[in-house]
Specification:
With 453 residues, this protein is α/β, with parallel strands linked by helices. The protein is built from 15 helices and 16 strands. The termini are far apart.
Amino acid sequence: MKIYNNILETIGNTPLVKLNKITKDVEATVLAKVETTNPGNSVKDRMALKMVEDAEKSGLLKPGGTIIEGTSGNTGMGLALVAIIKGYKLICVLSDKQSKEKMDILRAVGAEVVVCPTNVEPEDPRSYYSVSKRLAEETPNSWYVNQYDNLSNRQAHYEQTGPEIWEQTDGKITHFVVGVGTGGTVSGIGKYLKEKNPDIKILGIDTYGSVFKKYHETGIFDENEIYPYITEGIGEDILPKNVDFDVIDHFEKVTDKDAAIYTRKIALEEGIFVGNSAGSAVKGLLQMKDMFKKDDVVVVLFHDHGSRYVGKMFNDDWMRDRGFLEEGHQSAEDLLEHHKDQPLVTIGVEELVSHAVAKMRTFKISQIPVTKDGEFVGMIDETALINQIVDNEQIKDEAIGNIMGPKLPVVKPNASIKELSKLINKDVPAVLVELENGKFHIVTRHDVISAMS
C-alpha cells in the first residue's frame, strides 16, 4: 500500500503551474509555485515542522510542552498540525486585522487563539509580539517559536523549497518573486538558488506601510514608512533576523487595493484559489514586467489558500466598503445602486436640532436635507452641527431652520462622476439626485471618493 504514516509526511512537493491569462502581457514564462497543496494549505507548514523538530533536538521543546507563537494565521496552522501529531499544546497570538476564517480554522484544529490590536508599536505590551513573549514567560514548560528570528525558518526553505523549484524548472529559473514577511521563504529559497546560479534575481514583494523596501535601498530604518495596512502576510514594522537583505536584489511595493483586486483575478482568470499575498506577488510581478525577457523563466510563490479570505477579499461588501471593488461607476445613478432602495432621510424645518442628531445616529448618516411644505430648503451637515453644539449646547432645543445651511444641488441620474466632483467641495458635502419616479436620493462626498479610489 502507498500510504503516509501521518499528515506531516505530506508536506512539500507542491506543484509548479504555468500562468496564462493574468500574465499575458509578460514576455517571459511565468510559473506559480502553489503551496496550497501542503496539508495546512500554506507554505508555512514547511518551516513549522522544521522549527519544532530543531527545538526538540536542542531541548528547547520538551514532551507535553506548550508551543506559543505570534502569527498571521498560516504559521499557526502549520504548528497546529505538528502539535496534534507530536502531542503538544498550542497558543497562537494574532493581530485583529487577520481574517475571521484564519482564527476559526486555528480553533478548529485545537489551538488557543489570543487576539491583539494591530495599530500599536511592536514594543507596546498589547502588540502580538509582546503578548507572545509574555505568555511564553508565564506558561510552564513552554517554547516561544519566534518565527521572525528563528533561523530554522529560512533553513527549511533552503533545504526543501529551493531544491524543489530548481529541480522542477530543470535549473532554468531566472527570477524568483515572493512576498516578504518573516523573510524565511525569500531568504532560504534565494540563498539556495543563488548558490546554484548567482545570476538568478530574487525579487521581494513589499506593501505600503512596511519598512523593507526603503531599508533595503538605503540602510535606513525609517519609522515614517510605518502605518497601518490591510494586506495580510507580507511587510513588517520590524527587521526580522530571517530577512537576508543581501540575497534580495529588489523590493517592489504593491498597494492594498491592487493586492485585493489581483487576489480575485487569480481565481477568476487562472482558476487558482489563493490568498492575499499571492495577489500582491502577481501585481508586483506585472509592475516589474520590463525586467523580464522572452526566454526568462519567472517563478512566483503563492503562499496560502483563498478560503482564508472569503470574508474579506472575496466578499463584495468588504471590497466595496474599502473602495476596492472595480464596478465602473460612471454616473450618479451608479453610485446609488447599492442604497437607492432605502428611503431618503429628511428633516422638517420646524423640527429641533436634537431630532437631527438622533436621526444621524440612528441612520448612521452625516448629512440630512431639510424640507418645508414638501420642498427642499436647506441642509444639516454633521461637521457644522457638531461645531455649533460645542459652542452652544443649548442649540439642541432650537429649530433646524435657525441653523441649517444652504440647500443641496440637485442633479439628474445621468450626471457624471466628473460633474459630481465639481459640485461637491468643502462647503457642499453632497448632492440630491432626482430620480425618474419623482423621488430623490443623496450622493455624498464619501460615495464620490469611493468611486474614484
